Amino acid sequence: MALHETKDVHAGDADTDVFASALSGEILPKYRIPEEHAPSDVVYSLLRNELLLDGNAAQNLATFCTTWSDEGVHRLMNECLDKNMIDKDEYPQTAEIEARCVNILADLWHAPPGVAGTGCSTTGSSEAAMLGGLALKWRWRERRRAEGKPTDRPNLVCGPVQICWEKFGRYFDVEIRQIPLEPDATGLRPHQLAAYVDENTIGVVAILGVTYTCDYEPVADIAAALDRIQAEHGWDVPVHVDAASGGFVAPFLHPDVVWDFRLPRVASVNTSGHKYGLAPLGVGWIVWRTADLLPADLVFNVDYLGGDMPTFALNFSRPGGEVIAQYYLFLRLGRAGYRRVQQACAETARYLAGRIADLGPFTLLYDGRGALPAVSYTLTDPAGAGFSLYDLSDRLRMRGWQVPSYPLPADREETVVQRVLIRHGVTRDQIALLVADLRRAVEHLAAQPRPVPTGESRSGFHH
Ligand SMILES: *Cc1c(COP(=O)(O)O)cnc(C)c1O
Fold it and tell me: Who is most buried in 233, 234, 281, 289, counting CB within 10 A?
């Protein structure tokens, strides 16, 4: 029934029960904007009800992204609803706060001191990766042109990268040379590079927090391997660190791991403010070591908004609230607060790793020590366990837990892993409850007659 047919019944709805309203007795329109308006509290309540069908974010152990924010963040986000990141002339203070965040991150990652940080906010690490990749491609091309050499076959060398780097390759015409995982490796191993890097390599992406295993790649050793390649062949290949998760973990939990601008070969770093940066969804960051590493050619000066502002971004209009929330969190938590939050997550991850090891059928792939606050594991005997990790994911989902199972990338595709991420807001008690459910699920599945193999349903794995 079309909404306009019930127009008269809507009169006075605001005074009546939402769920006795006319609209709540209808199937909501799905293909066409209704002719008439409806009371906001009714529409709000009906949509809220529909959204309950989404997974419960607090039990989503698949995502790295922020699912809990304090009251200050909620209030600022609400009050900043109208701030447009691109209108730097209308919202100069929002632009100023973005610049402060860039400076803070440049300092956190040990960029050369004494100059303003070069970088910007983005919608997330994916956009940041596009910008970092573009700068690598532009600089490589300038170098090649200056040498009178062809510029038509750029490649980017990396290990098991997140999908955004494959997108970068496809969108911007760069061959992605993804190095296969070695047996038992949780990421790229430096000695593998020599067989993949050549004169057309625009850069190497090192990952601080591999999506599939949660481990850090050894960025310093990767840089050292590239030093040897340069000494042998003369190719000066820069490193971009994809620190989507690790960029806000390593500085607080692993200050001795040298992965950032302390390594001269690291040209740029991206991170997701909305992951362990603890900001609400919609903010990422890219920072270059020095201003000369960002080709001027890629920077547009936007002047028709009334000012003359340099911008480097794929989007134009974009909300400013997340950037302000990021700055709020820097001030609110301080270094000590970030350390405490990440430490609490890491301790809970190690607690979980211990319990999973005790359960019996699992082998830990990453035990929560030394890298991200997370745990990844496999079935020790996939053929003899009597169930698959996909079965286990499905079983946990019955209790609301979202724990993804997925195959590792090449050359370890035969290994199926399960991963649990611990982030701000995931408590020790919750994880103890998860462990109890894990134990019950394993007992239940192991007692079942072996199911006939079908085209297995995989649970979602997006991050
Ligand atoms: C999450 C993630 C990305 C993508 O980041 P978004 O902020 O979701 O766009 C890229 N690389 C790695 C290693 C990630 O973990």
Answer: 289
Answer yes or no: is 300 within a domain: yes
Q: Which atom of ligand 1 is nearest to the CA of 162?
A: 11
Rounded distance, CA 412 to CA 311, Å? 41
Q: Is 445 part of any domain?
A: no
CATH number at residue 97: 3.40.640.10
Q: Is residue 360 part of a domain?
A: no
Listed as own residue / partner, the contacts of 96-105 with beta carbons closer than 8 Å and 24 or more positions apart are 97/323, 97/324, 97/327, 98/320, 98/323, 100/327, 101/273, 101/285, 101/323, 101/326, 101/327, 101/330, 102/285, 102/287, 104/330, 105/247, 105/269, 105/271, 105/285, 105/287
| 242, 248, 276, 318: residue to mutate for ligand 1 pocket, most atoms within 8 A of CB | 242
Q: How many domains does the chain have?
A: 1
Q: Is residue 378 in a domain?
A: no
Cβ neighbours of residue 117 under 8 Å, at least 6 residues apart?
Answer: 99, 102, 103, 104, 105, 106, 107, 111, 287
Select from 176, 211, 421 the residue to mutate for testing ligand 1; criterion: most ligand atoms less than 8 Å from CB: 211
Ligand 1 atom closest to the Cα of residue 128 is: 9
How far is 209 from 371, CA to CA, in rounded Å? 7
The Å distance, Cα 126 to ligand 1 centre, comes to: 6
Q: Which residues line ligand 1 (CB under 6 A)?
A: 64, 124-126, 162, 164, 207, 209, 211, 242, 244-245, 272, 284, 463
**Distance from Cα 162 to the centre of ligand 1, integer Å:** 6
Ordered per-residue pLDDT tens for the chain, 463 residues: 444 444 455 555 456 799 999 999 999 999 999 999 999 999 999 999 999 999 889 999 999 999 999 999 999 999 999 999 988 888 999 999 999 999 999 999 999 998 889 999 999 999 999 999 999 999 999 999 999 999 999 999 999 999 999 999 999 999 999 999 999 899 999 999 999 999 999 999 999 999 999 999 999 999 999 999 999 999 999 999 999 999 999 999 999 999 999 999 999 999 999 999 999 999 999 999 999 999 999 998 877 656 666 789 999 999 999 999 999 999 999 999 999 999 999 999 999 999 999 999 999 999 999 999 999 999 999 999 999 999 999 999 999 999 999 999 999 999 999 999 999 999 999 999 999 999 999 999 999 886 555 554 455 454 4
